[in-house]
Amino acid sequence: MKKSLFKNKSGYRKVGTASVSIKPTAADHSFNVLVDVFLAVLLVIIAIPLWSTITLSFRPNDYIGNNLQGMFLAPWNWSTSAYKALLGNQGFILSFKNSFLILIGGVASALFLTIPLAYVLSIPSLPGRKYLNMLIIIPYVFNVGMIPSYLLVTNLGLIDKLAAVFLPGAISTYNCLIMRSFFEGIPNELKESARIDGATEIQVLMRVILPLSKAIIMTIGLFYGVSFWNDFFHAMLYLNSNSLQPLPILLRNILMASGMNEYVEVNAFGDAPIAAIKAASVFMSAIPMVIAYPFIQKYFTKGTLLGSVKG
Amino acid sequence: MPIAIVKKRDRQVIREIKRHKSVYLLLIVPLVYYVIFKYVPIFNGQIAFKDYMALDGVLGSKWIGLTHFKTFISSYYFGELLRNTLMYSVGKLLFSLPLAIILAITIYECNRPHLRKIVQTLSYLPHFLSWVIMYGILLALLAPGDGVLNDIIKLFGGKPIDFLTNTNAFPWIVIFSDAWKEMGWSAIIFIAALMGIDPSLFEAALVEGANSWQRVRYITLPSIRPVILIVVLLRLGTILDAGFNQIFMLYSTPVLSVADIIDTWVYRQGLLEFQFGLATAVGLFKGVIGMFLILGSNKLVKRFGGNSLF
User: Fold this and answer.
1) Alpha helix positions (H), chain B
2) Strand bridging mode A21-22 / A13-14
């Protein structure tokens, strides 16, 4: 991020490499204070909803008091009964497993489809490249909505197959274009020299491009992973069987249950308070994202990714 | 063009194609995917002009022309859906965009590295959470009986509000929760733009005696103005997308009149009431307008010196 361009240790602002120091004015001070206050307030606003959910998930069954006070409940009074109930529940474990299968199948097929397409589109000398680009862009720009896709998946016989959740989104045009711009940035000389040595295009892709593209593949793979892990819409449309439901569907059912009796599965979760069960399942669904997040952040904060998106 | 030159050009093209033989091999699987999963739905879109019967299939159903479109445009919910859709997309743009810009500038200007790092990390995080998870978080915050916000209202002697079923509160919940989730993520592009500003501009301003406010007003903001313009244009291109997943998770029957957007209506009409033809017509209507908006905004982006996506 920004180096301390304007301040040295004594609080005086230094101008470039020159030896002049300029004393900060009152206006500068008020500005700095306002910046800090704004960020601090924002931090609290972002943190409160997260914190209230986390503390709620650790709420003991015999807790007396409201949720506001619960946010300040000391950690040694927390109870893990909601988590124990969730992890001991067959349905929850099963949907966790389903979500993982969708995640892995989705990311694998998405990368398998997106990488070659993006690579081919990045070859400037390819005859017909313009038409290929148009072929990719037209469905991206012209979105006919959900019903025609629903009919397609139904006709393909994918109902009640986990693939129905990730196949319709296995190539995201946006991700493909990001990857294409990255491949375009790889110096042409590297590819040409491999070709002169007699490498086929598949070998160029495997031996030259892929080793240089680990960062972008990780990033795009994680983007795909996030979208498949979070997807509830396709799962809701295409998976009718209870044994196939992924985590977001189960989570939605748990959250929609307002009373103990409304949703049978919730009853099966034992003696933790229902609000704690809800919060704990929210937290458990978010955990893989929270774990993966630092790795993704490493890439996107560099700005390299968004720089390559162009606009 | 003389025939000889044409022949020569064609020979060159054929040679180029031959040279790239193995490249086309790589394309086979992705192209088959594209035809099936991206073009067959466009083909299926014809049922917007048909009286679709599941037994007859897409091709076998009877053509009925523009009947579905007329039904939709003359119905009372047409205005309501359009109003709600625009209310949410414009509202989100007006509220979150300035917030994202301010966030980017304050992060850039902040002299406390720890504060800056924590705010960055925490504000990007919600972008990666799904709207199902967001709904869970909002429940813990907003529930009428035991939500934290209502605890605060009760603390000050107010009456608890059921935010998610209150027609006055609901639009604000949608706009605020979207801002809460996405502002950090939308700020990234502005932070990237800020880091590209030539530091010598700031140094010159310092020598000339500009204070921090003047620096932001006369250097920072004008420097990122092109990026702001591009972001606004690109957002205007998708103005008919008001956030299906969000509304779908948050809305309920009591707030339908202020919550229903085109996409949620299409979902209910098509997949719950099996009015496939009508729902497709509405989706197509939205898709065609959306296409012109995206193409138009991309043209403008190019004119204003940005690189458009295609």
Assistant:
1) 3-19, 21-34, 40-44, 57-60, 67-74, 77-109, 113-124, 131-142, 148-155, 170-195, 199-207, 212-215, 221-237, 244-250, 256-259, 262-267, 276-303
2) antiparallel
DSSP state of A245: -
CB contact under 8 Å between B22 and A147, yes or no, is: no
The answer to whether A103 and A165 have CB atoms below 8 angstroms apart is no
DSSP code, position A174: H
Mutate to test the interface with B, among A144, A153, A258 (most CBs of B within 10 A): A144
Distance (Å) of CA B238 to CA A141, B78, B83, B214? 10, 19, 15, 35
- Chain B residue numbers with beta carbons less than 8 Å from the beta carbon of A136 are 34
According to CATH, the superfamily of the domain at A87-309 is MetI-like (1.10.3720.10)
Tell me the pLDDT tens digit for each residue of B165-223: 899 999 999 999 999 999 998 998 898 888 888 888 888 888 888 888 898 999 999 99
Mean pLDDT of A154-180: 92
- Domain B68-303 belongs in CATH node 3.60.15.10: no
d(CA A154, CA B301): 39
Whether residue B115 and residue A135 make contact (CB cut-off 8 A), yes or no, is no
pLDDT higher at A72 or A233: A233
DSSP result, B94-120? HHHHHHHHHHHHHHHH---HHHHHHHH
Yes or no, beta carbons of B26 and A229 under 8 Å apart: no
DSSP helix/strand/coil, A125? coil
For residue A267, the model assigns a pLDDT of 54
Task: Name the residue in chain B with its Cα closest to that of A141.
Answer: B291
Side-chain half-sphere CA neighbours of A131 within 13 A: 4
pLDDT score recorded for residue A6: 46
A276 to chain B: closest CA residue: B140
Residue A224: band (very low, low, confident or very high) from pLDDT cuts 50, 70, 90: very high
Residue from B307, B230, B117, B180 nearest A301 by CA? B117
Q: Is A143 helix (H, G, I), strand (E, B) or coil?
A: coil
Tell me whether 0.95 is exceeded by the ipTM: no
Q: Can you tell me the distance from the alpha carbon of A228 to that of B205, in angstroms, rounded to the nearest whole number? A: 48
pLDDT digits (tens, 9 = 90+) for A108-132: 999 999 999 999 998 888 888 889 9
Domain borders along chain A are: 13-83, 87-309
What is the Cα–Cα distance from A163 to A285, expressed in whole angstroms? 20
Q: What's the pLDDT at A228?
A: 94
Q: By three-state DSSP, how is residue B36 classified?
A: helix
Find how far residue A192's CA is from the centre of its chain: 36
A21 strand-pairing partners:
A14
